[in-house]
Amino acid sequence: MAASATSAPVTAAKPPGLFARIFDGDVWASFRRSKLAMVAAIATLIFFLAALLANLGPQDPFDPAQLELINSRIPPLWTADGQPPFLLGTDDQGRDILSAILHGLRISLIVGALGVLLSATIGIALGLVAGYVGGAVDALIMRVADVQLTFPAILIALLVDGVAKAVSGGQMSTPAILGVLVLSIGLSFWVQYARTVRSSVMVEKNRDYVQAARLIGLSSPVIMVRHVLPNTIGPVFAIATINFALAIITEATLSFLGSGMPDTQPSLGTLIRIGNRYLFSGEWWIAAFPGLTLALLVLAVNLLGDWLRDALNPKLR
């Protein structure tokens, strides 16, 4: 009995899981202590709810039947020439600025979220393979990442957008334009994820629980996905939050330059580009309110990302 008791296998304790490490008591306590993070989270939630409920606005700016040119360039309601129900005024096509902002906000958030999801998927997969396999595979992936870092993200996005338009002959439907924008953003921001995950994987792959998984015969893909990835993905959430703001700015920049959403279905960047035509003729509200919305959205997401980065850093706890 004693011999059998002493020969019992001893298994290494597995580190806490993904949600236990990210949403543990320390992170939640840090969030409650940071009034700035709480305000940023509430503001971000308000923007998402506004985009979700955009159809409840006073007008559908994408429906030509609801637009009248006689209502074009009406100033905000509180000015002398303001007219109800146009609270923030109208643009050159008679679109209600408030309704256009709500619908444009939805497009910007969708493109930003899908772009971050794509870039995170690419970066995490490549970083996981590079860190776990090592050798020539690691060197190849990291050299590609180093080359991409020499180019600004907006140039890569413009290149992808230009190639897509050249292949399609310049005639693309709205879903195709959205897909190109998502692809452009996804291919522009994957490097940060890959480098972060790779460095974490190189540490985690030598842990006892990984060695135990190898001993029981688990394949490398199973070990990488089921055991290593959950314990290396924590910092990715902070990167994704900050990159979400960058993705929104990138989409707005592409649309402002005319490489994004068309005038008929504008995002925030397209609305700013439309308003820029009339900025020096006195119709300041056409560009001012979409620009202010974009600035507040990016500020809220950035503040939330900064807090999350500090909260997940064990050296600052």
TrEMBL record:
Keywords on record? Cell membrane, Membrane, Transmembrane, Transmembrane helix, Transport
Task: Provide the ABC transmembrane type-1 domain boundaries.
Answer: 105-305
Q: Does the keyword Transport apply?
A: yes
Q: Which Pfam families match?
A: BPD_transp_1, OppC_N
A single GO BP? transmembrane transport
Q: Which InterPro entries match?
A: BP-dependent_transpt_permease, MetI-like, MetI-like_sf, OppC_N
SUPFAM superfamilies linked:
MetI-like (SSF161098)
Keyword Transmembrane assigned: yes
Show the Gene3D superfamilies listed in the entry. MetI-like (1.10.3720.10)
Membrane topology, as annotated = Multi-pass membrane protein
Q: Per the UniProt record, which residue ranges are transmembrane?
A: 36-54, 107-133, 140-160, 172-191, 235-257, 278-304
Primary location recorded for the protein, binned into one broad class: membrane
> What CDD domains does this protein map onto?
TM_PBP2
Task: Write out the GO cellular component annotations.
Answer: plasma membrane
Q: Where in the cell is it found?
A: Cell membrane
Q: Give the top-rank taxon of the lineage listed in the UniProt record for this protein.
A: Bacteria
Q: Which family does it belong to?
A: Belongs to the binding-protein-dependent transport system permease family.
Return the protein name.
ABC transporter permease
Which species does this protein come from?
A: Enterovirga aerilata
